[in-house]
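Pasting as-is:
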Amino acid sequence: MKRIVALVAVLLSFTAFAYVLPGGSILRRMVTERDELKLSGLRVEGSLSFLGPAVKEAGAALGAATDRPDVQGDGVLYLRMPGRCRFEASVPDGNSRSAVVQVAGRRRLEGNEIASLSVLVAQVCPLFAAGGGPVQQLKESVQQYLQGLGVDTTRTGLARFSGEVTYVLGEQGENRPQFWVYKDSFRPARLRYTDAAKVAWDVRFLDYNSPAVGEAMPRTIEVWRGDQRAVRFTALKGDTRATVPDKLFTP
C-alpha cells in the first residue's frame, strides 16, 4: 500500500511539472504583468559592446577603430508608450552617432545602420513599448507579431535559460522560431527567428529587477547573429517616469 501511495505521489508530481500553459494564456499573463507597471515613458542609459560580426559595422557607423576584438561605447534607449522606441549609440573615440527609431512598426535611421541595433529595437519595441489598450487587444497584438516572425504560438514547452525555468512558445528544435518567457515572472526571456535574408537572430533579455531599471526592463539585452554575440547593452541608469519628447521620434 505504501508503495502504491508513493507511486501515485510521484505521478502527480510529474504531471504537475509537465503541465504547460497554452500559448495564449502565457502571452496574456505577460502583457498583464507589463500593463500593471503603468509605464508611459522610459529612458535607459548604459554601456554598449559590439563584438564579432558587428565590430566592422559599428566602427564604420560610429567612426571608431576596428582593429580590435570589440568596440565599446554608450547607448541610450527611449521608450514612449504605445509603440515608440529610439536607441542612440556612440563611442568615446568616434566621430559620429547612429540612432534607430521605430514608431508603430515603421523604422528609420539616423546615420549609418548597425544591423544588430536595428534588430534590438525591432524586437524591444513590440514587447516592451506596447500599451494604451485592453489586455486582450495587447495580447493579440503581441501574438500576431510573433506569428509574423514564424513562431507557432499554439505549441508550448519548458526549458531552462539563464538559470531559470522558461516557457517556450514555438516548435521544438535548435533552428526553429521561438519565444521564451520566464515561468515565474512572465517576462520576456528570449526571441529566436530568421529574417527575410535568411539570417538567424537570437535576442536575449537577462537579469530583471536591477537597481537601474527595476522590473521595467532587463538589465542586459544581447543580440546574437547566428552563434556569435553581436551586441550587448547593459543598463547603468534608468528613469521609469521619464518625459520623453515627441521630437525624438520625428524626422
